[in-house]
Amino acid sequence: MARAVSTVLDVALCLLLVGVAVGTLTSAIPSEGDTMTVDSDPAAHAITTETAAIPSGEGETAHATLAEHLAQAVVLNVRIDGERLTESPYPASVRRTVEERTGNRVHVTARWEPYADSSLESEIEIGPAPPPTADTAATSVTVDSGMRSPTSTGSVESVAAAIAAAYVERLFPPERTRLRLVDPRTAPVTKDRYHRTARAVGTSVEWATDEASSSEANERLATRLAYRVEADLRAEYGTVGSVPVERVGRVEIVVRRWEP
């Protein structure tokens, strides 16, 4: 029974798929030629409706739609100033699966950027780019990132802190992560993930992980990350009122399909 409970928790933590769901579906990208609805675009329809079982690389398998897998892969693929915050084979597995399901002459881009010119961003591209002379149709799909969009009111510091905390909590859900830190079977890989993220943002969480204090570790990560986010916001927007905070809560997927 204990192993069964642990397995459920492993899946929930490693893949973080709880809370990710397909959001608003729209036709967009007018500069890319004809636009299409999701239902009329076979590749986009497959991404939003077909499910797949994809290994996490840690002995577990996630079952979700291709769009949900893409959203989670983007979250795990985030870089800050070019350095990846966490390491996982899952994004590469998602790329392969989506490419197999969507076929030839399809290019898929999944992107998460919480605000313009963010130091914290992620993009995954799948399939060949369409030829410049091809007749291209594009469909845009908005997917829930699984992160809370902060309120746009308040100080620059408070908005930056909310964005940083939302991402860290998405990456390391506190209670599930604490249980992994106290379980000798999962503690080593969980600590490794924490320490890699800590190095990327310029801090240490060794004491917190040794004490299985996910809340303390998350607080340290979020505090350091908030400094970078705050600098970005001040440079790009100046005032909080102009920050499009709703972007935190969504992943944009663009599907381009073309004929020879």
Question: Which terms would index this structure?
Answer:
two-stranded antiparallel sheet, 2 domains, eight-stranded mixed sheet, 260 residues, globular, alpha+beta, 21% strand
Give the CA-based shape: globular
DSSP strand content:
15-25%
What is the typical, i.e. mean, pLDDT? 83
| Helical run tally | 9
Low-confidence stretches: 1-33
SSE order in H/E notation?
HEEHEEHEEHEEEHHHHHE
InterPro entries: DUF7284 (IPR055708)
Pfam families: DUF7284
Describe this entry's structure for a reader.
- There is one protein chain.
- Helices cover 44% and strands 21% of the residues.
- The N terminus is likely disordered.
- It is built from nine helices and ten strands.
- The longest helix is centred in the last third of the chain and has 23 residues.
- By secondary structure, it is an alpha+beta fold.
- Strands 1, 2, 5, 6, 7, 8, 9 and 10 form an eight-stranded mixed sheet that branches.
- Helix 5 crosses helix 9, helix 6 crosses helix 7 and helix 7 packs parallel to helix 9.
- The chain folds into two domains: 147 residues, no CATH class; 86 residues.
- The chain is globular and about 55 Å long.
- It holds the Pfam family DUF7284.
- InterPro entries: DUF7284.
